[in-house]
Amino acid sequence: MGGDTYKVPEYTKFSSIKGIPQLEQLEKELAKKGLKDPWIRNEVWRYHPGFGTKLLRARKLFFRGFPLGLLLTVVTVAVEKAIGGDDHHDHAEH
Questions:
Q1: For this UniProt entry, which segments traverse the membrane (predicted)?
Q2: Confidence bin at 69 (pLDDT 50/70/90)
Q3: N or C terminus: fewer CB in 10 A for the chain?
């Protein structure tokens, strides 16, 4: 298994919102209302460049299973055609 091993990043890398404009703005908006989110640091990893852009993450979310789903659809249709499973007639004719 001669590949590179995965190195777990240090947790301290994702423990501060400093330098992340979106989270700093959120913190300011909450402070205006007298609120504070103690768990905001849990969102820091989402803004790290190593995790991709919002568009890339959305594309992964919505299309991750698309190739497998398409393949299974084609196989299902082919099997139905092969065994003559075309019993979807227009019942209005009868």
A1: 61-79
A2: very high
A3: N
- How far, CA to CA in Å, does 83 sit from each of 17, 66, 70, 75, 87? 59, 26, 20, 12, 11
Question: How much is the pTM?
Answer: 0.46
Distance CA 22, CA 46 (A): 11
61 touches 46 (CB < 8 A): no
Annotate 17-52 with b (16+ C-beta within 10 A) or e (fewer).
Answer: beebeebeeeeeeeeeeeeeeeeeeeebeeeeeeee
Coil/strand/helix, residue 47? helix
